[in-house]
Amino acid sequence: MRILVLNVNTTASMTHAIGDSARQVASPGTEIVELTPDFGADSCEGNFESYLAALAVMDKVANYTEPFDAVIQAGYGEHGREGLQELLDVPVVDITEAAASTAQFLGHKYSVVTTLDRAVPLIEDRLKLAGLTDRLASVRASGLGVLELESDPQRAVEAIVEQSRAAVEQDKAEVICLGCGGMAELEEQVAAATGVPIVDGVRAAVTIAESLVRMGLSTSKVRTYAPPRPKQITGWPITRQPADAGTRA
To answer: Per the record, which residues fall in region Disordered (predicted)?
Structure first.
């Protein structure tokens, strides 16, 4: 089984960290292929960068020439998952939805701890669209930019722990979702400080994607995510036609 894991920003070191995290939970025989977009922002922290990332991720996947069995979009609260589902005939899993759905198996209420406050509405909207807000206690911001997760890891851990504790003590969350792909591999430190289960969206997405592939399931194509209708698209950066993309390995 081959799973493509797409970073939504152009920071290669973050792509590698996301890929390493994915491999730690992948089953024997599952190949994780980490991919970085060819264009876009070095971090995604708002709507403009998110929509740009959506286009870049679709471009990267559509131009991947080897067979694959599933795609993971590793951006928390980012746009684009629906476009990938139209383009591909393999499962597409978004880490935002993967983390939240997994959290609901582990406790009554969950909270998300993310980066900057401006990312909070995007995450809330993504969770609402996915129907995952009924058991959402809160979405809290650590106050750190995405790139600070790498440049100052100790400060990042302290800020995430602080907001995670507040979510548990004040918002009554019983599970914490790490609200950024760049927070991969912080689960143990945050769990030790809070005493609650910590869900990393990348790892959750890998296990969900593997399960869907093993069950032979993929996106329904009868209505919402039907393939794009054939038409002339001017100036589109994708060089291959959508019908050519996404064949199982």
So the answer is: 224-249
For the beta sheet containing 175-178, the strands, ordered from the edge strand earlier in sequence to the opposite edge, are: 136-141, 110-114, 175-178, 198-200
Interatomic CA distance for residues 37 and 104, integer angstroms: 31
Residue 71 host element (H or E): strand 70-74
Could you tell me the pLDDT band of residue 242, with boundaries at 50, 70 and 90?
very low
What contacts 60, CB < 8 A, 6 or more positions away?
A: 6, 35, 36, 37, 38
Distance CA 200, CA 204 (A): 6
φ and ψ of 140, to 5 deg: -115, 145
Q: Is residue 240 pLDDT above 70, yes or no? A: no
Of 175, 149, 169, whose CA–CA distance to 160 is shortest?
149
